[in-house]
Amino acid sequence: MFPLKDTVMGASTFFASALPHDVCGSNGLPLTPNSIKILGRFQILKTITHPRLCQYVDITRGKHERLVVAAEHCEKSLEDLLRERKPVSSSRILCIAYEVLQGLQYMNKHGMVHRALSPCNILLDRKGHVKLAKFGLYHMTAQGVDVDFPIGLCR
């Protein structure tokens, strides 16, 4: 894990799909709740570190399959930059694109897909460098199987 000094932290929350009560697998044993499976996959995300990816820090499981994920966060996004409607130099555009590709390449190397890549999840740190956010949601939810909502939408 990179040192997280001078880092802003953010939290996101979602609900894992609840299993019907008293459900057992074909072996007769109770099924593992989806939130427990997500907790296990999250541990892998904590080891994925790259300068172009927001660092995942911790996850907490609450009542009713609620999960709260703490991760590095930046206050400004590419969406904010586009909303300003100010001219952006071609060199700046190329730099942003290159940094996004660096993050995606690293994820691909580790067998991960972003699935929620959009201007609101391309964050810009204080120096203007890219940090991809929410890249692990698709991975930790087993490609969306363990949640009741579509993955890949910004709010």
What are the defining features of this structure?
Transferase(Phosphotransferase), domain 1, 6 strands, 3-stranded antiparallel β-sheet, elongated, 155 residues, 27% helix, alpha+beta, 4 helices
Describe the 3D structure.
One of its GO terms (cellular component) is nucleus. It comes from Ficedula albicollis. With 155 residues, this protein is α+β, with helices and mostly antiparallel strands. It has one domain: Orthogonal Bundle (Transferase(Phosphotransferase), domain 1), CATH 1.10.510. 27% of the residues lie in helices and 19% in strands. A hairpin with a 4-residue loop joins strand 2 and strand 3. The chain is elongated. The mean pLDDT is 87.
Cα(first) to Cα(last) distance is 28 Å
**Any guess at the CATH architecture?**
Orthogonal Bundle
Per CATH, the superfamily is Transferase(Phosphotransferase) domain 1
**What is the top-level CATH class?**
Mainly Alpha
Individual helix count: 4
Number of strands: 6
Short description:
With 155 residues, this protein is an alpha+beta fold.
Topology:
Blueprint: E1 8-15, H1 34-45, E2 56-61, E3 66-73, E4 76-77, H2 78-83, H3 90-109, E5 122-124, E6 130-132, H4 137-140
Antiparallel strand pairs: 1-3, 2-3, 4-5, 5-6
